[in-house]
């Protein structure tokens, strides 16, 4: 029996933003578990994407789990607006929250969202241990397999050591990977122990997105049997 459930989260950054509601519906119809929403402030990362108003608009059209990844300098400022907008998960970056993550996690949970922590490729995996082991812990760790900020980058296989370390240390933790995931790289991520898979261009650019999602899911489920 799988230790943790496979969750496939198409990255809406790769969707047609002019038709976000129908793109979200299409992904859910194709088998997506979550919809991954990249929120960038143009400061923590160079790109600028969406914020709470877009989440609020999309929430009116879907009940699906909205997996929000905050690539922002001041995540605390986003908690209340995103909670009101209908975000489901709130994943912040450890690099942006060195001093106040305890307050941040508490606030996220108080507002009814699920807290997660993300780390950039250059950040050591040990940085997130305290957040997972705290008495009021984060519930997901997102290992970036590309530099955050832009879609369509190449997968960094050397990041799989972080995933392996986390899976060995925390068998029941949701471990998410984001960046360059597709049919050619999913095996590495799944066998390392990732169970939440963010995929952008490999799903949205596929001739059959449902087939692409199915390949990702089967790979995770197959690998999970070994943990």
Description:
This is Ribulose-phosphate 3-epimerase. The protein is an alpha/beta fold and 227 residues long. Helices cover 35% and strands 19% of the residues. It has an 8-stranded parallel β-sheet with strand order 1-8-7-6-5-4-3-2. Helix 2 runs parallel beside helix 3 and helix 7 packs parallel to helix 9. The longest helix is centred in the last third of the chain and has 16 residues. It starts with 6 loop residues before the first strand and ends with a helix. 45% of the residues are buried.
Instruction: Give the rounded overall mean pLDDT.
Output: 96
Order of helices and strands: EHEHEHEHEHEHEHEHH
Distance between the termini: 9 Å
Q: What's the total helix number?
A: 9
Q: Report low-confidence residues grouped into runs of 5 or more.
A: none
Indicate the overall shape: globular
**Can you list the strand order of the major beta sheet?**
1-8-7-6-5-4-3-2
**Percentage of residues in DSSP E strands:** 15-25%
**In terms of structural class, how would the helical and strand content be classed?**
alpha/beta
CA gyration radius, whole angstroms:
16 Å
The helical percent reads 25-40%
Family: Belongs to the ribulose-phosphate 3-epimerase family.
Organism: Acorus calamus (Sweet flag)
Protein name: Ribulose-phosphate 3-epimerase
Binding site for substrate: 11, 69, 149-152, 180, 200-201
């Amino acid at each position: 029996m799988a230790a943790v459930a496979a969750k496939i989260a198409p990255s809406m950054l790769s969707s047609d933003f002019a038709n976000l509601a129908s793109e979200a519906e299409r992904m859910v119809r194709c088998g997506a578990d979550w919809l991954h929403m990249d929120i960038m402030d143009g400061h923590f990362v160079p790109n600028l994407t969406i914020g709470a108003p877009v989440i609020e608009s999309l929430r009116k059209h879907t009940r699906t789990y909205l997996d929000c990844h905050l690539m922002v300098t001041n995540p605390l400022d986003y908690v209340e607006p995103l909670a009101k907008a209908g975000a489901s998960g709130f994943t912040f970056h450890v690099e942006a929250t060195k001093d106040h993550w305890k307050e941040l996690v508490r606030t996220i949970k108080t507002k009814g969202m699920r807290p997660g922590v993300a780390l950039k490729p250059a950040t050591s995996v040990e940085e997130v241990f305290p957040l997972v082991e705290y008495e009021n812990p984060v519930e997901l760790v997102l290992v970036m397999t590309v530099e955050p900020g832009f879609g369509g980058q190449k997968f960094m296989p050397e990041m799989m050591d972080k995933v392996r370390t986390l899976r060995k240390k925390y068998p029941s933790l949701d471990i998410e990977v984001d960046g360059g995931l597709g049919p050619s790289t999913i095996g590495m991520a799944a066998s390392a122990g990732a169970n939440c898979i963010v995929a952008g261009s490999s799903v949205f650019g596929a001739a059959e997105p449902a087939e692409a999602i199915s390949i990702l899911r089967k790979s995770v489920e197959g690998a999970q049997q070994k943990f």
